[in-house]
Amino acid sequence: MEIAHLQHPYNYYQESLLFGRYINADHLQPLLKKHSGNFEIAVIGKSVLLEDIHFIKIGTGTIKVLMWSQMHGNESTTTKALFDLLNVFSDHETLSVQDLLSKVTLGIIPMLNPDGSRGYTRVNANQVDLNRDAQMLTQPESKVLRTCFDSFKPHYCFNLHGQRTIFSAGATDKSATVSFLSPAQDADCTVTITRKKAMDVIVKMDQVLQEYIPGQVGTYDDAFNLNCVGDTFQTLNVPTILFEAGHYLQDYDREVVRGFIFLSIWTALVEIAFEDVAGVREEEYFAIPKNDKLFYDIIIRNAKLKIGDVHQIIDIAVQYVERLEQNEVIFIPKIEKIADLRNFYGHKEIQANGHLVISESQEALKEGFEIDFVFINDIKYLLNV
C-alpha cells in the first residue's frame, strides 16, 4: 500500500512486535523503550490495578491533536496502527514527516485501559465502560484522559476504537471495514462548525480509503449521549472523530485493517496540518452510508433441520465468540440465529442445498450451541477461523 507523502510503502513502517488481537501493556514496554530517545514519553496516571498509563508527545506545531486507543481493552487494532505511525515519526530524514511535525503537535495515549487490555475485556477492572464515564469521571482512567485533555488543550481529538464483524456499510453486502463518526454536540444533533470540521476530515479519509476498500466505509448514528467521551469533547468545541476498525474478509487478526487505520490517521493528520479545514463538506459526509447490522461470521443456507417434530428448510447463522486462552484470542463458533436470513450476509457462506445439517453427536442444532464443525450430507464442514 503506497501512501501519499511517505517515502516508503506501509509495510516498511509496520511494527513487527505487535500482531493479532491480544495486545496488553507488556507488549508495549519494549516499544516505549525503543521510542524513548525520539519522543517525550511520560507516565500520566495509573489504572485501577495500578498499571501505568503512558502519554507520548511528538512534534512542535501549533495545531494539537490528541488521540487515545484501547479505551476498550479488547479493541487493539488502533493500538497497532499507532505504533506503525510512531515508526513513521522516527524517520527524521523524511522531509514530509519533518514538515508535518512542524505544523502539528501530537499527544498519544496508546493504551488508556491497560487492565481491560490485559483481560481482553471492553470494561476496566471495576467493570465500567470508560466510554460511558465522561461526565461522572468515576474511574481513574477516565480522570487521566480528562486531565490530559484539559492540560494538552487539543484542537482535534481522535477517539480510536474497534467494532464487531456484524456491521455492514449501509444496507449492502459490503462489510464496514472502517467506520467514522463526527459525534453530536447536543440532543438535537445540530451540525455545528465544530462537527463540520470533523466531517471535513472524515470525508478526506473516506476518499482515500475508497481507492482500497470501495463501498466498505461507514458512519455511525450520531444520537447524542453526553456520557460518551466523543460527545463530551465535541460539546467543548473540539472537533472529535471516532475511528472504528472493522472487518475485512478473512482478517480476524485485523492485520489488514490495521493498515487501513494507519492510512486513515496519516491522511487525517496531513489534512489537518496542510489544508484549510473550513467545515464545508457536510453533504459529502452525510452521503457516506450509515452502518447497518447485516452480517454474521458464517451463514449456512437452506439447511434441513428438525425443529420440534418436523423438518424445515432454514438458515443457520454462526457468530464467533472471542475468548482469551493462554494469552491468545480464540474464536469459538456459536450458533447465533436459526431463521430465514435472506436479508443478511455471511462473511463466509455454506450452501446446504436442503440437506440435513447435524452436529458430530447427530443432535439437532440449536441457538446458543458452541460447535466447531457440522456435517452436511455426510461431509464435514469446519466452522473455525
Give descriptors for this structure.
single chain, 385 residues, alpha/beta, Aminopeptidase, Urease, subunit C, domain 1, 2 domains, 8-stranded mixed β-sheet, 4-stranded mixed β-sheet, 10 helices
Care to describe what's here?
Belongs to the peptidase M14 family. One of its GO terms (biological process) is proteolysis. InterPro entries: Peptidase_M14. This is Peptidase M14. GO terms for molecular function: metallocarboxypeptidase activity; zinc ion binding. The structure is a single chain. This protein is α/β, with parallel strands linked by helices and 385 residues long. The protein has two domains: 284 residues, Aminopeptidase; 88 residues, Urease, subunit C, domain 1 (Roll), CATH 2.30.40.10. The protein contains ten helices and 17 strands. An eight-stranded mixed sheet has the order 1-2-4-3-5-9-7-8, sandwiched between helices. The protein has a four-stranded mixed sheet with strand order 13-12-11-14, with no helix packed on it. A hairpin with a 5-residue loop joins strand 1 and strand 2. Helix 3 crosses helix 9 and helix 7 crosses helix 9. The longest helix has 20 residues. It is globular, with a radius of gyration of 22 Å. It starts with 9 loop residues before the first helix and ends with a strand. The model has no long low-confidence stretch (mean pLDDT 96).
SSE layout:
Layout: H1 10-13, H2 25-35, E1 40-46, E2 52-59, E3 63-68, H3 77-89, H4 95-103, E4 104-109, H5 114-119, H6 140-152, E5 156-162, E6 167-169, E7 178-181, H7 193-209, E8 217-219, H8 229-235, E9 240-245, H9 255-274, H10 282-287, E10 291-293, E11 295-307, E12 310-325, E13 328-339, E14 345-351, E15 357-358, E16 373-376, E17 379-382
Helix pairs in contact: 3-9, 7-9
